[in-house]
Write a structure and sequence with these properties.
single chain, 4 helices, mainly alpha, 74% helix
Length: 121
């Protein structure tokens, strides 16, 4: 991967991370402002469910941030864009669609098949 492509993916990853952090800050400030004051139990239950879903989403995004940071470390180390299993280059189309990808499509499919087989046993 040439330096221009590395700079492109670094900027893409950083933008993604910044976006997630802004959304998380918005959620946190909204949680501090809004309190569950609905008088109707059904409305309160609905609000609690909505917040529960929102918090689960934020937790998944928190885990995603660590993957984004790992991808940026791989860029620094010159390992970004190469499959961690086979060592082959990951296609630019795959990296464009999933910038945190660590495996080629073929290696990922093999990995998922093996996981499926081990779960079924």
């Amino acid at each position: 991967m040439n330096p221009r492509q590395q700079a492109y993916f670094r900027a893409k990853l950083q933008g993604w991370k910044d976006s997630i952090l802004r959304e998380a800050a918005g959620t946190l400030s909204q949680l501090q402002v809004d309190t569950l004051r609905e008088a109707d139990l059904t409305d309160r239950a609905s609000s609690e469910t909505d917040w529960s879903i929102e918090l689960r989403t934020r937790d998944r995004q928190r885990k995603l941030i660590s993957k984004i940071e790992a991808a940026m470390r791989r860029i620094d180390e010159g390992e970004y864009g190469y499959c961690e299993v086979t060592g082959e280059p990951i296609s630019l189309a795959r990296l464009e669609a999933r910038p945190i990808a660590t495996m080629t499509v073929e290696a990922q499919e093999r990995h998922e098949r093996q996981e499926k087989i081990s779960r079924e046993e």
